[in-house]
Design brief:
Blueprint: H1 21-28, H2 46-55, H3 69-81, E1 85-88, E2 99-102, E3 114-117, H4 127-132, H5 144-152, E4 158-161, H6 168-176, H7 178-187, H8 189-211, E5 216-222, H9 235-241, H10 243-255, E6 260-263, H11 272-279, E7 283-285, H12 294-301, E8 306-308, H13 313-318, H14 321-335, E9 341-342, H15 355-367
Parallel strand pairs: 1-4, 4-5, 5-6, 6-7, 7-8, 8-9
Antiparallel strand pairs: 2-3
Length: about 375
């Protein structure tokens, strides 16, 4: 849903920001305290982007039928918000999963409802289903949109290679169903291993394709491995079936001179040393106040990796603007020094996050010195 076309609203930001992808990378690499706050988000929901573009007249000169409208809108929305990058990947990884849908009750409701994965049973629960599954041919993956960005992205921005990328744990649960996976870890580990190997082979091609582009300066894997009190499957199972995939992605990124970031929800204490010493992630994203705050994580691990985002999504949804501004300043006072921190939500800018609260968070980041 987008807002009706009206004259563009007044700019909500009190301080101008010019993209600076080199400064963004120095911040990620913890090369001293940045002169300004850098921002980062894993996802901004489509409904939020469309509303921003409409409210602030960001696409008034470009018709929606333009061949590259979506990419142009991505660049304009990101620049308007103050980001130094666009987050993009290959055109389509090609893995198909079964989804269920429910009505979306958010103010910026999603057309067609909200989709989610069946936790009980996925498309692969037996060896026969594994062999019958339409596995994508990695050699057929295309990169037309990255090619366009390589040629047309403004020089002061970069690409974060991501989008549908490095879902090693997630695709195990999505392809098997979480319940089925839990049983299979006991009595069909060979099937789990076979799926894991297929995913690794696929993503090795995906990362090779992304890294061939000079404008791709960061790689960002996204793979939820935990929940509020622990990991979704046992730490040893993650070490066998999931972490080797991320280690391969990080190794390829580092060989090409790019940092490797990881988004993973949940309590990951049991595998944090694995992520830092074995996988060798350069930054961690996704923080929830009921698990561990970004401030606590920066204090404990900030000399070893970047910490990213951390303004709790539930807090953003329930608070007023002044509380959001106060929380943002407090977080920056504890996390900005020394680099290795980028401001953002604890998870993503979902379509149920009050838009003015999100913009207030960004504005307070622009003001911070």
């Amino acid at each position: 849903m987008t807002e009706p076309m009206t004259p563009a609203a007044e700019n909500p930001f009190s301080v101008a920001v010019t993209p600076d992808w080199q400064g963004f990378l120095r911040c990620l690499r913890r090369e001293g305290t940045p002169e300004r706050v850098f921002f980062i988000e894993l996802l901004i929901d489509e409904e939020v982007k469309a509303t921003l573009a409409s409210r602030y007249g960001l696409m008034a000169d470009l018709p929606p039928e333009d061949k590259h409208y979506r990419l142009q809108r991505e660049i304009r929305v990101q620049r308007f918000l103050g980001y130094d990058y666009v987050r993009w990947g290959v055109d389509d990884v090609g893995i198909r999963i079964d989804r269920l849908t429910a009505a979306d009750t958010a103010e910026l409701a999603r057309v067609g409802g909200r989709a989610f994965v069946d936790e009980h049973r996925g498309p692969i629960t037996t060896w026969d289903e594994f062999h019958d599954y339409p596995w994508p041919d990695p050699e057929q993956i295309t990169v037309r949109q990255l090619e366009w960005l390589e040629a047309n992205l403004p020089e002061d921005m970069c690409v974060i290679g991501s989008c549908g990328f490095a879902h090693f744990a997630e695709y195990l649960t999505w392809l098997m169903g979480y319940e089925t996976l839990c049983y299979a870890l006991y009595d069909r580990r060979d099937l789990v291993a076979a799926i894991s190997q297929r995913l690794l082979e696929l993503y090795q091609v995906v990362i090779r394709l992304m890294l061939q582009f000079d404008r791709v300066r960061v790689i960002w894997g996204s793979d939820d491995m935990g929940f509020r009190t622990g990991t979704l499957i046992g730490p040893d199972d993650l070490r066998q079936f999931v972490l080797p995939g991320h280690r391969a992605m990080a190794s390829a990124s580092h060989a090409a001179g790019r940092p490797y970031l990881l988004h993973s929800c949940g309590k990951l204490d049991a595998i944090m040393e694995d992520l830092l010493e074995d996988v060798r992630i350069d930054g961690l994203h996704s923080f929830e106040d009921t698990i561990k705050s970004v401030e606590q994580t920066k204090a404990r691990y900030g000399r070893r990796m970047a910490v990213l985002g951390g303004i709790d999504v539930d807090f953003l949804c329930r608070s007023d603007e002044q509380a959001v501004r106060r929380r943002t300043r407090q977080t920056l006072e504890r996390c900005h020094s020394g680099g290795g921190y980028c401001l953002g939500t604890g998870n993503s800018v979902a379509n149920y996050v009050p838009l003015n609260n999100y913009l207030a968070m960004l504005d307070e980041g622009r003001r911070f010195r």
